[in-house]
Amino acid sequence: MTNNNPIGVFDSGIGGTSIWKEIHDLLPNEKTIYLADSKNAPYGQKTKEEIVALSKKNVEFLLENNCKLIVVACNTATTNAIWELRNDYDVPFIGIEPAIKPAANNSKTQVIGILATKGTLNSELFNKTAEMFQHTTIIEQVGYGLVKLIEDGNLYSPEMTQLLEEYLQPMIDANIDYLVLGCSHYPYLIPQIKKILPDHIQIIDSGEAVARQTQNILREKVGFTDTPKSEPIFYVNSNPAVLKSILEDKYPVIEKEF
């Protein structure tokens, strides 16, 4: 089965590029279109209705560009809007959820931490998943301010360090042995997080699993491209310099209203 249309990926900002990179590494020949809704970031403090509306706007832009499959590279958008997206649009969707299951199943202390947005932690989907692991204590922490600092280009600022120490120390004190990153922006914080956490605490994010699921859906339902490797396209509606920096200026970034 062959399908030369692009894979669409969207996030509330630049964080979903951590997911895009995993997809691009696994499927380098596939054409990809990445949409960064940085103007409306972060989604985590918005209402469910606002998140659904913004997600639909992003999807319609990607469908106008003939995307064959759409990856919702945002935990908040997935946990609040994935049902509505799958119900309203005739295209396969792949969402991203906090990787609670592998953390809970492998934890020896039976205490795990999750750092996520308010929108994700308050969502029905997240809470249904968490309820499946009654024998594991889940220390939840809203990452207030982290996404905004990343979106503003302040990844390595003293304020970022201070917030991470404030959020992670109670988890360390509670004896977690796994930290789940529940926001696609947060993998960019891993080098700093590792400086704070003891060495025995494992960090888990969802990027690799999402890439494998993308490959599975292409194989089973949509079709792979048979064209040579093509350059990805990145769209952003605010502050393109930060997206360019995250991409290390390897790819062109198009600033566009959507």
Write the element-wise H/E pattern from the N-terminal end onward: EHEHEHEHEHHEHHEHEHEHE
- Point out poorly predicted stretches: none
Q: How does the overall form come out from the CA principal axes?
A: globular
Radius of gyration: 18 Å
Strand content: 15-25%
- Strand arrangement, largest sheet? 4-3-1-2-9-10
User: How much is the average pLDDT?
Assistant: 95
The number of distinct β-strands equals 10
Fraction of residues in H or I helices: 40-55%
Distance between the termini: 32 Å
Structure summarized in a few sentences:
The protein is of the alpha/beta class. It has helices spanning 17-26, 48-64, 75-88, 100-106, 118-121, 124-131, 146-151, 158-173, 190-196, 207-222, 240-246, and strands at residues 7-11, 32-36, 69-72, 93-94, 111-116, 137-142, 178-182, 202-204, 233-236, 253-255. It has eleven helices and ten strands.
Mind explaining what this structure looks like?
Helices cover 43% and strands 17% of the residues. The chain has 11 helices and 10 strands. Helix 1 (17-26) crosses helix 10 and helix 2 crosses helix 3 (75-88). 44% of the residues are buried. The mean pLDDT is 95.
Salient structural properties:
258 residues; alpha/beta; six-stranded parallel beta sheet; four-stranded parallel beta sheet; 11 helices; 10 strands; 43% helix; globular
Write the layout of secondary structure elements.
Blueprint: E1 7-11, H1 17-26, E2 32-36, H2 48-64, E3 69-72, H3 75-88, E4 93-94, H4 100-106, E5 111-116, H5 118-121, H6 124-131, E6 137-142, H7 146-151, H8 158-173, E7 178-182, H9 190-196, E8 202-204, H10 207-222, E9 233-236, H11 240-246, E10 253-255
Parallel strand pairs: 1-2, 1-3, 2-9, 3-4, 5-6, 5-7, 7-8, 9-10
Helix pairs in contact: 1-10, 2-3
